[in-house]
Automatic annotation (TrEMBL):
Keywords: NAD, Oxidoreductase
Active-site residues, record numbering mapped to chain: E265
Cleaved signal peptide residues: none
Native species: Phycomyces blakesleeanus (strain ATCC 8743b / DSM 1359 / FGSC 10004 / NBRC 33097 / NRRL 1555)
Alphabetized PANTHER family for the sequence: ALPHA-AMINOADIPIC SEMIALDEHYDE DEHYDROGENASE (PTHR43521)
Protein name listed in UniProt: aldehyde dehydrogenase (NAD(+))
Domain (Aldehyde dehydrogenase) ranges: 35-490
Family as reported in the entry's similarity comment: Belongs to the aldehyde dehydrogenase family.
EC number: 1.2.1.3
GO MF, one example: aldehyde dehydrogenase (NAD+) activity
Length: 511
């Protein structure tokens, strides 16, 4: 079994084959259904987790709030030291954690390790922030007055995460939530509970070593019921949701209904525009990574390729050749670039999308097969695929979380931008060009309407220093770098009068 084969990984990370407790609120427990974690390479059970219930969540929310009261007393640079210790613990466990991500989610090992590295990076960023979270001092129109802004924690940040980044999404949120003085409650994807257990255990150990209440980083694994309760609960001051647009739309309404704050990181439908003046080799290499990496299961995966008609044939020829060399297989094997899809349901989605492409008048240029023979027999393996479509086809309007890249042509940059912007989602976008005029148009007011607007790099693979997130049906949230930390805070506008008199604003004379 997967568990026996990778026993060292599970032992290092404190995971058993059965009876893993899936709730942490200072102590480990769990009174919900027993849920298996499945290896997408062979659809066999890796290990079982006793998940949480809404009653477990109710208790955990109180425990987080108690822990936060202690945490918030700690000077911010001291909090930074605790985050540094968390970072060191992750560095020590980088390889086993990366392997666990590969085993449970199905992404290739370098991407699994890379995902844990993102968590390490954001903890370093948060350490820096712990000395730099500055507020503004604002000129006052009144004599003897000063105005300033304060940024204080909101309390508890609830994190609901998707299956495709079972570590990094929580990492981004927890690092910033903690440094700003909040407690965190995590509801991970029901299909990646083991990653959540392993991470939470590492945080628990670090908090205990610092004599801090470990409930500060609480965990309730479980399904929709736990997610729904966490969303509706007033004790969740910020709800950071990463997942599909369909679920995010409901989550956003519920949080708004109770005047909570939400950060929504929803689906993408990302495009690359290829201009006739670009470096075609560079573009082809970027497109391969952007469309095939993580087997097409990144929110930033390139799904639409918009190519100038004069370079379409030569680019497609290169891509077909490159796609032909992509090794599909076990994500832990050397040289494999494309692992399995996370679930069997995604294989059905893959087939449905290809059927629709044909029905709507498109064609499959390469790939298009589900792999079922030999080592692929029991897993969720498909061949990365290129199609040729027209920009007005319905099939390219929705995000399908599979490695299918729809290609199409354009004549002018304005037309390419209109195609890029012509979908409901607005996460990531890239242009390949060597012409500065094209670059500046692309990033300007008449350019890409996405949250991530790249030039000569893929749509995926963001660095943690920038704010990450998207517009329109991607939800509008921003996480990670820049000033994203402010979303985990309440802003206070403070006016201090040291004049001894009472001059009023706008020169008003009252009585
Ligand atoms: P999903 O929407 O099915 O599930 C996400 C999470 O929501 C899970 O933890 C799930 O248990 C929980 N959930 C389900 N119903 C809920 C409800 N009614 N209330 C509260 N929580 C509920 O998404 P998924 O299939 O796990 O992930 C894939 C999707 O996530 C894709 O659309 C992808 O683009 C998106 N995603 C976006 C980003 C981003 O930053 N924009 C990053 C990663 C993934």
């Amino acid at each position: 079994s997967t568990f026996d084969k990778h026993h060292d990984v599970f032992e290092t990370l404190g995971i058993q084959k059965t009876n893993n407790k899936g709730v942490f609120d200072g102590e480990w427990s769990g009174s919900g259904p027993i849920v298996p974690s499945i290896n997408p390479v062979n659809n066999q059970v890796i290990a079982e987790v006793v998940t949480g219930t809404t009653a477990d969540l109710d208790r955990a929310l109180d425990r987080v709030a108690e822990a936060q009261k202690i945490w918030v007393e700690m000077p911010i640079p001291k909090r930074g030291h605790v985050l540094l210790a968390m970072r060191d613990a992750l560095v020590k466990n980088l390889q086993p954690l990366g392997k666990l991500v590969a085993l449970e989610m199905g992404k290739i090992l370098p991407e699994g390790v890379g995902e844990v590295q993102e968590y390490i990076d954001i903890l370093e960023y948060a350490l820096g922030l712990s000395r730099m979270m500055q507020g503004a001092i604002i000129p006052s129109e009144r004599p003897g007055h000063i105005m300033l802004e304060t940024w204080n924690p909101l309390g508890t940040v609830g994190v609901i995460s998707a299956f495709n980044f079972p570590v990094a999404v929580y990492g981004w949120n927890s690092a910033l939530a903690l440094v700003t003085g909040n407690g965190v409650l995590w509801k991970p994807s029901p299909t990646t509970p083991l990653c959540a257990l392993a991470i939470t255990r590492i945080l628990e150990q670090t908090l205990r070593q610092h004599n801090l209440p470990p409930a500060l980083c609480s965990l309730v694994t479980g399904g929709t019921d736990v997610g729904v309760s966490l969303t509706a609960d007033k004790r969740t001051h910020v709800l950071s949701f990463t997942g599909s647009t369909q679920v995010g739309r409901e989550v956003g309404k519920v949080v708004q209904g109770r005047f909570g704050k939400s950060i929504l990181e929803l689906g993408g439908n990302n495009a690359i525009v290829v201009m006739d003046d670009c470096d075609i080799d560079l573009a082809a290499r970027a497109i391969l990574f952007a469309a095939v990496g993580t087997a097409g299961q990144r929110c930033t995966t390139t799904r639409r390729l918009i190519v100038h008609e004069s370079v379409y044939d030569s680019l497609i020829e290169r891509l077909i050749k490159a796609y032909g060399q992509v090794k599909v297989g076990d994500p832990l094997d050397d040289g494999v670039l494309c692992g399995p899809l996370h679930t069997e349901a995604a294989v059905s989605t893959y087939k449905q999308v290809l059927d629709s492409v044909i029905k709507q008048g498109g064609e499959v240029l390469c790939g298009g097969q589900v792999l079922t023979e030999g080592e692929f027999e029991h897993g969720n393996f498909v061949v990365p695929t290129l199609t040729k479509v027209r920009p007005d086809m319905d099939i390219i309007k929705n995000e399908a979380f599979v490695p299918i890249l729809h290609t199409m042509t354009f004549k002018t940059l304005d037309e390419a931008i209109a195609i890029n912007n012509g979908v409901a989602q607005g996460l990531s976008s890239s242009i390949f060009t060597t012409n500065p005029a094209n670059m500046f148009k692309w990033i300007g007011p008449k350019g890409s309407d996405c949250g991530i607007i790249n030039v000569n790099i893929p749509t995926n693979g963001a660095e943690i220093g920038g704010a990450f997130g998207g517009e329109k049906e991607t939800g509008g949230g921003r996480e990670s770098g820049s000033d994203s930390w402010k979303q985990y805070c309440r802003r206070g506008t403070c006016t201090i009068n040291y004049s001894g008199a009472l001059p009023l604003a706008q020169g008003i004379n009252f009585g």
